[in-house]
């Protein structure tokens, strides 16, 4: 039951980010709602397709579809009254990332897949919706930036696997894992946590280019 409720909250949170990201694109109601629904349902759809699940989760239970739809519509009419949309976007995105990652990891474990598969699918489910949203709204994908994004998802999925393997009967395992992802993302946003330079791939500047730049 807790897994089900968390999944619904994750869908609502990601739907809000989809609506906010479309705010400056002059989209109509139907386009905005579509973007919100694709953002919130995309990650889980990819997960179920890759794992060859018999029926995609929102087809088997249309409650997910309705939550995505209603959340998108509600966000469309209320987002204009938000004072700081950027902050709401980042908090909702962090919340959705945390929930989707952990819910997917737990679901894949319940399907008796190996731990590496559960962690991988948890990360993919968590970040895929945001990638779809950012690409469709012509934004640089958050997962491709310097800021901690995929790493919190990985650590949350890993924690979920470890908890389920060692204390499977504990009812708050998912809450602990969700909290870890969310807290790491909030720290990354507010404390400017970036990957160290030696972990970043940087474009090399050719010697002749650097010489030309010094002439200006």
From TrEMBL:
Q: Tell me the organism.
A: Marinomonas colpomeniae
Q: Tell me yes or no: is Transmembrane helix among this UniProt entry's keywords.
A: yes
Protein name in UniProt: Trimeric intracellular cation channel family protein
Which PANTHER family does its entry note? INNER MEMBRANE PROTEIN, UPF0126 INNER MEMBRANE PROTEIN YADS-RELATED
Q: Where are the transmembrane segments?
A: 63-81, 111-132, 144-163, 175-194
Task: Say if the entry is tagged with keyword Transmembrane helix.
Answer: yes
What compartments host this protein? Cell membrane
**Pfam short name (any one):** Gly_transporter
Give the way it sits in the membrane.
Multi-pass membrane protein
Family (UniProt):
Belongs to the UPF0126 family.
What InterPro entries has UniProt attached to this entry? Gly_transporter (IPR005115)
- Report keywords, A-Z: Cell membrane, Membrane, Transmembrane, Transmembrane helix
The Glycine transporter domain is annotated at 5-78, 91-164
């Amino acid at each position: 039951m807790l897994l089900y409720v968390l999944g619904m909250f994750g869908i609502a949170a990601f739907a809000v980010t989809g609506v906010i990201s479309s705010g400056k694109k002059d989209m109509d109601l139907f386009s905005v709602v579509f973007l919100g629904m694709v953002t919130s349902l995309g990650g889980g759809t990819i997960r179920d397709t890759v794992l060859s699940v018999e029926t995609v989760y929102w087809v088997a239970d249309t409650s997910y579809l309705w939550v995505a739809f209603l959340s998108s519509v509600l966000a469309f009419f209320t987002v204009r009254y938000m004072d700081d949309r950027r902050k709401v976007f980042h908090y909702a995105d962090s919340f959705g990332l945390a929930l989707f990652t952990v819910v997917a990891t737990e679901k894949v474990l319940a399907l008796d897949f190996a731990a590496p598969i559960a962690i991988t699918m948890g990360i993919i489910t968590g970040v895929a919706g945001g990638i779809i949203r950012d690409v469709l709204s012509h934004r640089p994908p958050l997962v491709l930036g310097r800021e901690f994004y995929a790493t919190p998802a990985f650590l949350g999925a890993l924690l979920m696997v470890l908890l389920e393997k060692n204390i499977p009967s504990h009812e708050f395992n998912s809450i602990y894992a969700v909290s870890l992802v969310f807290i790491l993302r909030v720290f990354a946003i507010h404390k400017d946590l970036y990957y160290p330079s030696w972990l970043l791939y940087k474009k090399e500047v050719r010697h002749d280019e650097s010489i030309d730049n010094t002439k200006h």
